[in-house]
Write a structure and sequence with these properties.
The protein is α/β, with parallel strands linked by helices. It folds into two domains: about 5-90 and about 170-285, Metal-dependent hydrolases (TIM Barrel, Alpha-Beta Barrel), CATH 3.20.20.140; about 95-155, DNA polymerase, domain 1. The protein contains ten helices and eight strands. It has helices spanning about 20-30, 45-55, 85-95, 100-110, 120-125, 135-145, 150-155, 175-180, 200-210, 225-240, and strands at about 5, 35, 60-70, 70-80, 170, 185-190, 215-220, 240-245. Strands 1, 2, 3, 4, 5, 6, 7 and 8 form an eight-stranded mixed sheet that branches. Helix 2 links the parallel strand 2 and strand 3. Helix 1 packs parallel to helix 2 (about 45-55) and helix 6 (about 135-145) crosses helix 7 (about 150-155). The longest helix has 14 residues, at about 100-110. The termini are close together. Bound molecules: adenosine monophosphate and manganese (II) ion (3 copies). One manganese (II) ion binds next to loops.
Length: about 280
């Protein structure tokens, strides 16, 4: 089985390593096929692709798009996308535009409970100011001693019902899928275990996603328990969706799994890379 990692982040969004450092780390860990999937941004792809070529890694252009669906936030990964596709570029530009006001709103919420200076504090942790997000606030809160690590921050702050949360409207599911598919890529529901969807809501989401032209479910991801891997593998098979895998690596010490260090891919699922047989390099077949 090839070492394939189809989900990770660089300093272009909320990762800790630059695209070059990320690909170098993947190479050291034996990754053979890698996709960079920064949140709502594709600015790191060219640099990452170049480094991957030098390291003999098959590189897949990726992105992770923030979506609002029935009042929840979902993440849709796009793989094998065309970064020159205008509707995709314009769509991502539009979603990113809301992030600076949202950051100001988050800071105002934190201010209410006496946490001062979080806006400047969060910006001190960004790579690209336009991608300011909750992870940057989380790193600021850790630095200030409000939590021991980034993961713990999200138990006490920045999520619904906790200080520092502000609702936000991202892309529509139909738009995100159409930007991805229109560019020639595959749309994948990222880490479905993190949305806490009931049985019926999950079923509705999968049906709608299939109708829109979605390709796969991210069955193997850092935050899934072995039971969730089996559960979503079954859903993928039931709905005739393919399955994807990725570490969702954000940086050393911040993620459950390092690049390319993923639990086993479940039997019975069709891997997303089979779909690339005709379009991708022969080594993927
Ligand atoms: P944003 O796009 O600004 O809403 O930030 C979302 C990011 O916050 C995710 O991609 C994760 O990197 C991080 N995040 C959200 N929830 C958690 C969590 N429970 N543990 C660790 N990181 C989280
Ligand atoms: Mn993230
Ligand atoms: Mn995500
Ligand atoms: Mn991610």
């Amino acid at each position: 089985m090839l070492n394939i990692d189809l989900h990770c982040h660089s300093t272009i969004s909320d990762g800790l390593l630059t695209p070059v450092q990320l690909v170098e780390r993947a190479a050291l860990r034996g990754v053979e096929t890698l996709a960079l999937t920064d949140h709502d941004d594709i600015a790191g792809l060219a640099e990452a692709r170049q480094t991957a070529a030098a390291k003999n890694i098959t590189f897949i252009n990726g992105v992770e798009i923030s979506v609002s669906w029935r009042g929840r936030t979902l993440h849709i990964v796009g793989l094998d996308i065309d970064p020159e596709y205008t509707p995709l570029i314009e769509g991502l530009t539009a979603i990113r535009a809301g992030r600076s006001q949202r950051a100001a709103n988050i800071a105002a919420e934190l201010e209410k409970i006496g946490i001062h200076g979080s806006l400047e504090g969060a910006y001190a942790h960004v790579g690209e100011r336009r991608l300011i997000g909750r992870t940057h606030f989380a790193r600021f809160l850790v630095e200030q001693g409000y939590a021991k690590d980034v993961k713990s921050v999200f138990k006490k702050y920045l999520v619904k019902g906790k200080p520092g949360y502000t609702p936000h409207e991202w892309a529509a599911l139909s738009d995100a899928v159409s930007w991805i598919c229109g560019s020639g890529g595959c749309a994948i529901i990222a880490h479905p275990g993190r949305y806490d969807l009931g049985k019926n809501v999950l079923n509705d989401l999968l049906d709608e996603f299939c109708t829109l032209g979605g390709s796969a479910i991210e069955v193997v991801t850092s935050s899934h328990t072995p039971e969730q891997v089996r559960h979503f593998a079954q859903h993928a098979q039931n709905k005739n969706l393919m399955a994807s895998c990725g570490s969702d690596f954000h940086g050393p010490g911040e993620s459950f799994h390092d690049l390319g260090q993923l639990p086993e891919f479940p039997q019975g699922c069709t891997p997303i890379w089979h779909h690339w047989k005709n379009t991708m390099a022969a080594e993927l077949v």
